[in-house]
Amino acid sequence: MPGLVVLERNGRRVLRSMDWGFPRSTREMRLAGEEPGRIGLVAELRNPMWSTMVVDPRYRCLIVLTHFANPAGLPRAKTRTWFSVHGEPILAWAGFCRNTPEFGPVYAGMTMDANAAIPPTNDRMPVLLERSEYGQWLHGSIEDVIRFQFRPAFEAGRMKVEHTDDLWNSGAAPPATERQFALI
Fold first, then answer.
1. What domains are defined for the chain?
2. Burial, 145: exposed, middle or buried (Cβ in 10 Å; 0-12, 13-18, 19+)?
3. Residues 25 and 31 sit within 8 Å (Cβ to Cβ)
């Protein structure tokens, strides 16, 4: 699934389209001759999959989004619940990106403990960045990355929660996004 990310190269921020999800191949998958799967969420920075990459600012990006969604409800009948931030038509999610031999340019987003607006759909949420934090995310140390992941999430009162009847796998867009997409 393609998405938009902002990278910084040679002192300039560049908008690129990349595919969601780094290649993930377990020993069992390799032994069975299976192709790599994809993993798009970075929750454990010490995982060997991420540990060497997250320390290097070259692999950091801002994931551009207007909303994020989680499934809600019973199995086989889960619906889509959308989350956004009041007054912010465009958001930046702390991300990592890299050119991979398996899939080419890919990205993944870092997650953190959810604020009170997100449960019961999930106990994790994207690490959302304030505009004033973009530079620190793109250039900061590994200590900065750790601080971003373990700081308090955006306050629940800032979040807009939109429950829908759209089935989780429907591919339906968030409600009332025409204005936000026009800004991109």
1. 2-67+88-158 (3.90.1680.10)
2. buried
3. no
**Element housing 93 (H / E):** strand 91-100
Sole residue written with tokens 């993944």: 108
pLDDT digits 0-9 by tens, 92-116: 999 999 999 999 999 999 999 999 9
Question: Which range is most confident: 21-35, 105-119, 169-183?
Answer: 105-119
Which residues touch 166 (CB under 8 Å, ≥6 apart)?
79, 80, 172
Helical H segments across 17-109, by residue range? 27-31, 48-51
Q: Are 128 and 154 in contact (CB under 8 A)?
A: yes
